[in-house]
Amino acid sequence: ILGTETSSKYEIKNHLGQRVYFAVEENDCFDRNLCSPLRAFTIRIADNTGREVITVSRPLRCNSCWFPCFLQELEVQSPPGTIAGYVVQNWDPFLPKFTIKNESKEDVLKIIGPCATCGCFEDVDFEVKALNEMSTIGKISKYWSGFVNNVFTNTANFGIQVPVDLDVRIKAVMIGACFLIDLMFFEHSLDAL
């Protein structure tokens, strides 16, 4: 109602719909309201006992394909204090592209999104691909949740599908990639209404 951004809170559920983690964004009011989707943040992810298991950190970065030397990057730690990997935006004039890197900053996977991410009346899929970008091994999807929910709230539902045998640290990095995709392409403010 007031048009101000509040700290985001998330529930992370398994494929049965059971909550396995909850996450809280940490940053200050200035960042949330002035920088909105570009804001720097730390997201702390805890299990159901309240023990922090993953930390996702993103510095303030550019969100334009016209500034290829200052693109998005975030770091994922799991457990907190131990780097699990990174999500790095790749420059492309037409498609959203990211590289998933391990703790040594070696490329592991690619994520390629669609040319248009508006998702009007349908899900939006970001394909998780092997390094050669030829074979698709999974996806990060933003699910269509209805006109009223998509236009008048910041509530969104995402799904991550990756191979079961994927390294657990890279799975943690994929959760970080989902947060980054949400903020870059789907975060909006009610100020524009």
Automatic annotation (TrEMBL):
Which GO CC terms are listed, alphabetically?
Answer: plasma membrane
Cofactor names:
Ca(2+)
What InterPro entries does the record tag this protein with? Answer: Scramblase (IPR005552)
Q: Name the keywords, alphabetized.
A: Calcium, Lipoprotein, Palmitate
Q: Tell whether Calcium is among the UniProt keywords.
A: yes
Q: Which GO terms describe its molecular function?
A: phospholipid scramblase activity
Q: Which family does it belong to?
A: Belongs to the phospholipid scramblase family.
Q: What's this chain's function?
A: May mediate accelerated ATP-independent bidirectional transbilayer migration of phospholipids upon binding calcium ions that results in a loss of phospholipid asymmetry in the plasma membrane.
Q: What name does UniProt use for this protein?
A: Phospholipid scramblase
Q: Which organism is it from?
A: Tricholaema leucomelas (pied barbet)
